[in-house]
Write a structure and sequence with these properties.
Blueprint: H1 13-21, H2 27-32, H3 35-39, H4 46-127
Length: about 140
C-alpha cells in the first residue's frame, strides 16, 4: 500500500510540504534519506529525524506484515479447499467400497436363503404321507 508522508507519525501537512521542497516527496524517498540529510531540513533535529525514520520504517514493516498475512491466508484457504476436495474424493471412494461390500454380502445372504428354502421344501415333502394308498386296518 502506498502511503503519504502525512501517514507517518510526526509529519503533518506543513512538514510534508517542507520535505517536498527538499526532494523528499514519498515514504520510500524518506526511508532512503539518511539522518544527516534529513537534519538539513529546517525543523529536523537528529532526534526528530530518528523518530520520523523509525515511524516510516514501522509503517512499511506494518504493510509488509499485512501483505504476508494476506498471502498466508490465501495459501491457507487454498490448502483447505484442496484438503476438502481430497476428503470428498476419499469419502466417495469409501462409499463405493462399502456399497460393493454390502451388495456382495446381500447376494450371499439371498443365495443362502434360497438354498435354505429349497432344503426346507425337500424336508417338508419327505415328511408328508404319500397320497393314494391307504393303510389297512
Amino acid at each position: 500500500m502506498k502511503h503519504l508522508l502525512t501517514d507517518i507519525t510526526g509529519i503533518g501537512e506543513s512538514t510534508a510540504a517542507l520535505l517536498a521542497e527538499h526532494g523528499i516527496d514519498s515514504v520510500k524517498t524518506l526511508r532512503k534519506t539518511g539522518i544527516k540529510k534529513l537534519c538539513r531540513v529546517p525543523g529536523f533535529s537528529e532526534t526528530r529525524a530518528t523518530v520520523v525514520l523509525a515511524s516510516a520504517d514501522a509503517l512499511t514493516a506494518s504493510d509488509k506484515a499485512h501483505k504476508q498475512a494476506e498471502k498466508d491466508a490465501i495459501q491457507a484457504a487454498r490448502q483447505t479447499a484442496k484438503d476438502a476436495e481430497k476428503a470428498e474424493k476419499l469419502a466417495a471412494k469409501n462409499a463405493k467400497k462399502v456399497t460393493r461390500q454390502t451388495e456382495k454380502e446381500t447376494a450371499k445372504l439371498v443365495k443362502q436363503a434360497d438354498k435354505d428354502a429349497r432344503k426346507a421344501k425337500k424336508t417338508n415333502k419327505a415328511d408328508k404321507p404319500k397320497k393314494g394308498k391307504k393303510k389297512k386296518k
